[in-house]
């Protein structure tokens, strides 16, 4: 092979290798994307509930959560997969779409992002005269802390079932056979629907990081009850992950 051809071949190989390296995010980049995406989700969704809930109502809050997921998915999905939710991460791992070894790191990053978002939201909300945490600070709850007084059993069922539904949508929309480019939109719209159903029941979690982030600041009964909003979504997501292949087939 002529020297010039060999040089060109080597240069092409180097460029190709560099392109591969650039297109494979590092662990730090993935975790940063998860933290930032979860920040946007909690600040946008819970922020709408806390700052504008009386103006936009349940429908507006439901749309806010859906829109933040759409925005986050298209902004960071190519970096980390756009989970923004420990239950989603567990569900994807259960479906063999994600490595179990990465689950703890993702979950920690998501909780950190949610907590920072809640802290910023608290600073903003407390700047208004008459602000109080008595209204729950967009936290989740059951019994007397449920918006419409639903029981613990009702809350556990709705959170587990709707999280499972959410995972089925995610798994289907992100499958190799799905129409490309529309996963974020389908996932965001499904989260909007989930909120329309369950805001009156539990103030809608389906996301342990979202629940923990605001519960730290709401304190009291919000922290006492937050276990339900960790357990039920994780169980629902895991069930969906383990069973999705019966509906859509398992991807290799």
What does this protein look like?
It is globular and about 50 Å long. Helix 2 packs across helix 6 (183-202) and helix 5 (152-173) packs antiparallel against helix 6. The protein has ten helices and no strands. It has a single domain, classed as Up-down Bundle (Glycerol uptake facilitator protein). It is an all-alpha fold.
The count of strands amounts to 0
What portion of residues belong to β-strands? under 5%
Mean pLDDT: 91
Secondary-structure element series: HHHHHHHHHH
Number of separate domains: 1
Radius of gyration: 20 Å
Structural class: mainly alpha
CATH topology: Glycerol uptake facilitator protein
For the biggest sheet, the summary is:
none
CATH architecture: Up-down Bundle
Helix percentage range: over 70%
Low-pLDDT residue spans? 1-21
Distance between the termini: 40 Å
Main location: membrane
Organism: Nocardioides cavernaquae
Protein name: Aquaporin Z
Keywords: Membrane, Transmembrane, Transmembrane helix, Transport
């Amino acid at each position: 092979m002529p020297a010039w051809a060999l040089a060109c071949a080597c240069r092409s190989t180097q460029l190709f290798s560099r392109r591969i390296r650039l297109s494979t995010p590092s662990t730090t980049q993935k975790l940063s994307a998860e933290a930032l995406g979860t920040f946007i989700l909690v600040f946008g969704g819970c922020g709408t509930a806390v700052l504008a809930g009386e103006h936009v109502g349940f429908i507006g809050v439901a749309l806010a959560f859906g829109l933040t997921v759409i925005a986050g998915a298209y902004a960071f999905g190519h970096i980390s997969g756009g989970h923004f939710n420990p239950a989603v991460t567990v569900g994807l791992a259960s479906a063999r779409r994600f490595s179990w070894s990465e689950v703890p790191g993702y979950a920690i990053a998501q909780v950190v992002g949610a907590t920072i978002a809640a802290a910023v939201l608290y600073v903003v909300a407390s700047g208004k005269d008459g602000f109080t945490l008595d209204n729950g600070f967009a936290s989740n709850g059951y019994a007397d802390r449920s918006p419409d007084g639903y029981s613990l059993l009702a809350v556990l069922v709705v959170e587990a079932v709707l999280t499972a539904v959410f995972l089925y949508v995610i798994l289907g929309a992100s499958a190799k056979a799905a129409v490309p480019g529309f996963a974020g939109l389908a996932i965001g719209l499904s989260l909007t629907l989930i909120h329309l159903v369950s805001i009156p029941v539990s103030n809608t979690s389906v996301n342990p990081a979202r629940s923990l982030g605001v519960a730290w600041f709401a304190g009291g009964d919000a922290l006492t009850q937050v276990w339900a909003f960790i357990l039920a979504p994780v169980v629902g997501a895991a069930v969906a992950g383990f069973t999705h292949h019966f509906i859509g087939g398992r991807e290799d």
